[in-house]
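Structure ticket #2291
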Amino acid sequence: MDFNSYFSLMRLHSPTGLWLVLFPSLSGILLASTSLSGQTFFYLVLFTIGAFLMRPAGCIINDICDRKIDAYVERTKDRPLASGTLNVKQALVLLLLLLSIALIILLLTNKTTLILGIISMCMIAIYPLLKRYVWWPQLFLGFTFNMGSLMGWAAIKNQVSIEPILFYVGCIFWTLSYDTIYAHQDKKDDEKLGMKSTALYFGDTTKSWLKRFYLITLMVWLYAGILSSLNNVFFIALLAVGLIFRHQYKNFNPDDPSQCMSIFKNNSYVGLLLLFGIFLDRVVNL
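Resolution: structure written out below.
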C-alpha cells in the first residue's frame, strides 16, 4: 500500500486547509460556552476529530471530481488521482471510511448539529462542480468551509442565534478573501481550461475587492463579539487580525504564485488568533 499517496490525497502533508476548517469550528463552541465546562472540552475534542475526518474527505471528493482537470494544471498535476498513482475505487473506499466515522461522531451531538452536519456534507459534495458553471465558487467555499462555526455553537446550545450567524458571515468573507488569493495561483491554467473563479472575475481589481472583504470581515466579527459580550482580550486579538489583513493587502501580488500561497498559509494565524481571543475571554471569566 502506497501510504504517501493516501497522505497526499488527504492533504495531510499540507495542514493549512485543516486549520482553516478547524479553528472556526472550535471558535463556535467557545463562543457558545459561558464557561469551560466538561461539555465544552468534550465537543472541542469531538470537533477536532471531525475536522481531521471531513477536511480529507472534502479533498478526496474534490480530487475525484477534478482528476481530469488537475492533470493539466501545473500545481495539481502530481496529485494521486491526476497522476494515476491511485485510482477512483481506492479513493472511494477511503472516502467511505472517513464519512462513516464522521457520521458516528455527528450522531454523538444533538438534532440541530446533526441537521447542519448533513447540510454541510451536501455542500462539500457540490463545491467542486461550481467552478465549471459560476464565477464565485470561492463564495460557496466560504459557506461550506465555515459550517463548523454554526455546528459548534449548535452543539452547545442546540439552536442557532444571531451571534454565531454573524461570526459565520465574517468567516465567509474571510474565506472569500483568502481563497481568491489562492485561486490566483491557477488563473492561467483555469482560463485555458474554461474554469471560473473570483480571481479571473476580479482580475486587476482583485486588490480593491480584498480591501472590501477584509473590512466586512472585521466589522461583522466585531459586532459578533459585542453581542456575545466578549471582553477586551478578543478585541485585542481582532486588532491583531486587522494588522495581518493589512500586511496581506499590502504584499499581495496577483502575478506571483509563490507569494499568493504564502499569504494563503498566513491565514492560519488569523484563525488561531480568533480562537485564542475567545478562549482567553472564557478563561478570564472563570
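Closing remark: The mean pLDDT is 94.
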